[in-house]
Amino acid sequence: MNVADFPGLFFLDTNIFVYAFDATAPIKREIAQKLIQDSLSTRRGVVSSQIIQEFFNVALRKFTRPMAISHARMYLSVVFLPLCQHFPSISFYDRALLIREETGYSLYDTLVVTAALETECKFLFSEDMQDGRIIQGLRIVNPFA
Q1: What is the rounded radius of gyration, in angstroms, for the C-alpha atoms of the chain?
Q2: Residue 2 covered by a domain
Q3: How many domains would you assign to the chain?
Q4: Could you report the per-residue pLDDT of 95-111, keeping only the tens digit for each?
Q5: CATH code (residue 121)
Q6: Beta-carbon neighbour count of residue 134 at 10 Å?
Q7: Which end of the chain is flanked by fewer CB atoms within 10 Å, N or C?
């Protein structure tokens, strides 16, 4: 996958970060690591505070070897700090509820979509949503497909 094929800003779902640490899925791990690296180097990758929360919930509790707090703090500073551009507001949740009604997605997936839209991303990289679907101009892309 080459991010040059996706002009403009793009949003990364939590599963991208989880796969970047998954030794049991080496192909997905490599794709995820490159996507994160490209997000940082091009300065076009975006996440929300929700992505950070969900990632650390998995990394600190569910990884085969849970991430050490020192490593988590370093990852927060080096990776998430430059990428995080969205923090929720009441109007954000109102818009998310309307998008949930439109899409039928789960609440958490709808929050991801809404954050991507509010940060003016053109693409949302996620394994969990319908590859190719377009929601209000935002295209869902499964980078592992």
Answers
A1: 15
A2: no
A3: 1
A4: 999 999 999 999 999 99
A5: 3.40.50.1010
A6: 9
A7: C
